[in-house]
Amino acid sequence: MRHYGLTINLKDDPKIIEQYKAYHKEAWPETLAGLKAVGITKMNIYLIGRRLFMAMETVDTFDIKRDFPRYLEEHPKCKEWDQLMRTFQEPVDEAKEDEWWAEMEPVFEL
Questions:
Q1: pTM score, two decimals?
Q2: 3-state DSSP call for residue 47?
Q3: Picking from 4-8, 40-44, 56-60, 68-72, which range would have the lowest pLDDT averaged per residue?
Q4: Which of 21, 23, 31 is nearest to 79 (CA)?
Q5: CA distances for 45 relative to 18, 32, 64, 73, angstroms
Q6: Helices (H), the chain
Q7: CA-CA distance, 63 to 46, in Å (whole number)?
Q8: DSSP conformation class of 105
Q9: What pLDDT, in 10s, does the model give residues 54-80?
């Protein structure tokens, strides 16, 4: 099992933040199935202010640079969901040039 922490900001607008939360209360079943199909076994997203933190567990063979794009390519509804969610999001200042969600460095595990 592999673990990942990723972060992104929501746009600085309370209405957008509430819309984003509402979508995730009723996430599309196809997107959930698509995540599982590429090897994501558990995902939690947390919010403080407008900063999101995603904690993710995956199968050992999961590769973030290979399997997230595969999730979008193989599942049209997942691509549609991603495009919609991106209208609410903006990368954090710390994100690398090719990152949308910025991968965080693990510093502690119990």
A1: 0.91
A2: strand
A3: 68-72
A4: 31
A5: 14, 13, 17, 23
A6: 14-25, 29-37, 64-74, 76-86
A7: 22
A8: P
A9: 999 999 999 999 998 998 898 899 999
